[in-house]
Amino acid sequence: MAAVRAISELRPYQKEVAVAILDSVFGKKGLTFSVEIARQGGKNELSAQLEVLLLTIFMAQPGNIVKCAPTFRPQALISMMRLKDRPNDAGFDGIWQAELGYIVRLGNARAIFLSADGSANVVGNTAHILLEVDEAQDVSREKYAKEFRPMGASTNVTTVLYGTTWDDTTLLEEVKQTNLELERRDGIRRHFRYDWEEIARYSPDYGTYVLAERERLGENHPLFMTQYRLLPVHGGGNFLSVLQRQQLCGEHSRRHSGSPGAVYVAGIDLAGEEEDAGRSSGRDATVVTVGELTFPGEEPPLREPTIKIVEHYCWVGKKHPELYGQLVDIIRNIWQCRRVVVDATGIGEPVASFLKKALGGRVVPFHFTAQSKSTLGFNLLAAINSGRLKMYRPDGSEEYRDFFRQMELAKAVYRPSQTMNFYVEPSQGHDDFLMSLALLVQAAALYEPRQAKGTA
Predict the structure, then answer these.
(1) Between β-strands 363-366 and 339-343, what pairing exists: parallel, antiparallel or unpaired?
(2) What is the mean pLDDT of residues 336-361?
(3) Is 90 helix (H, G, I), strand (E, B) or coil?
(4) Exposure winner among 35, 107, 153, 251, fewest CB in 10 A?
(5) Contact 314, 286 (CB under 8 A)
């Protein structure tokens, strides 16, 4: 049977999981499994091959596989599309059918794909063959317990939760800890964990890719830790460790104007009392951070540039319209910045609009939302961890002291769906230098050096 042959051709770690799941299904044991496989390690292929095999075996009798994901589009839809490709490989071309936009039928057996979003109406479905939860770290524990878990109650269905770790409050982590305790009691393996090093044993190309990611992000970057090392982050705490703050320390001098031929970018965080998603309150300073970019020797550059912080400007209590002329002069004449990312959230929008009109495409407005700020924080951590971001050496200035004070006070909170917030507690001060620094890193990422044109 082609479906059985496909299972046998899985990698050893995938096969190990498949054998345990199939044993529970056919033995009607009703076990619940937790499966952590490093990102791009093949969990979706494992799931699709299991689904095809079970649909094939149960095609003569009515029964459902139910699979949910945090969202229907794109996550559940991607799983469904992957499954649609497999029946043809198994020799069922023209036999299987798609129904209602979320069902794949083979004979009398069906695979039903559902959203686990909090607003999704999923009550009434029954899982007879298998219940699967994809990206379980992003599925609400309440949604799973109240609406998905009961789908297999009358059938004692086998349940599988797939994903990568995040923090210690997720559904996946909760089921994992329960499974580890059950394993200690009865010796039956219910939790399967395969980090990137295990997958690299069977895919050298994968190993090469992940090593490059480790260099880019740093081994202790939250995303590398959770998606590849499968180590959970723990709620929050300091945004930067002592080591990371030390990594920020550079040996170059502060400068007050640009040098011919050098490439400069800037991040501008604007003062204001209006607050939007993820912003800290009580802000009363506008901070500009200027950085000099140094590119690797490759032609074209294959790695991201080093960013040397070369200057800070800080204005306290000065209204935005009073700064227009100075900001334009700093960007255009003093530093000739190639890319500037400016806080355009709330009352920052008019400033960003003015600068863009005055300076053109080099100015990029940035709107703070929970998601965009999370990405900003992860990118900042990657630049620090990789040694690409350096502060000028101590110069006795107030700006230098404020900069490192904010780096020390900054906190991080890790939230569902691999997002984070970073900030300084309002009771302890402001985060102007911190946010300006993060916007500087964004400006560096958006700058694309011109490539020299070859001659014929």
Answers:
(1) parallel
(2) 96
(3) coil
(4) 251
(5) yes
Residue 124, pLDDT above cutoff 80: yes
- pLDDT surpassing 70 at residue 282: no
Would you state the pLDDT for residue 278? 42
Closest CA to 254 of 397, 385, 384, 405: 397
Question: Residue 411's closest CA among 390, 400, 389, 426?
Answer: 426
Listed residue (306, 293, 314, 264) closest to 431, CA to CA? 314
Question: CA 330 to CA 337: how far, in whole Å?
Answer: 9
Reported pTM? 0.86
Residue 151 C-alpha from the chain's centroid: 30
Degrees to nearest 5, angle at CA 412 with 406 and 416: 155
pLDDT in tens, 95-121: 899 999 999 999 999 999 999 999 999
- The owner of tokens 């069902």 is 103
Q: Which amino acid is at 13?
A: Y
Interatomic CA distance for residues 306 and 121, integer angstroms: 49
The predicted-structure confidence for 46-97, as pLDDT tens digits, reads as follows: 999 999 999 999 999 999 999 999 999 999 999 999 999 888 777 787 889 9
Nearest to 387 by CA among 255, 267, 218, 219: 218
- Residue 332 is inside which H or E element, if any? none
Peptide bond into 300 cis (omega under 30): yes
C-beta separation of 167 from 41 below 8 A: no
Identity at 446, one-letter amino acid code: L
Query: Do the beta carbons of residue 168 and residue 232 sit within 8 Å?
Result: yes
The SS3 of residue 35 is strand
Ordered domains of the chain (ranges, CATH): 2-200 (3.40.50.300), 235-446 (3.30.420.240)
**What's the token pair of residue 6?**
């496909």
Q: Which residue, among 369, 370, 385, has the nearest Cα to 223 in the 3D structure?
A: 385
Minimum mean pLDDT range among 226-235, 368-377, 401-410:
226-235
pLDDT at 281: 42
Q: Give mean pLDDT, residues 394-419.
A: 95
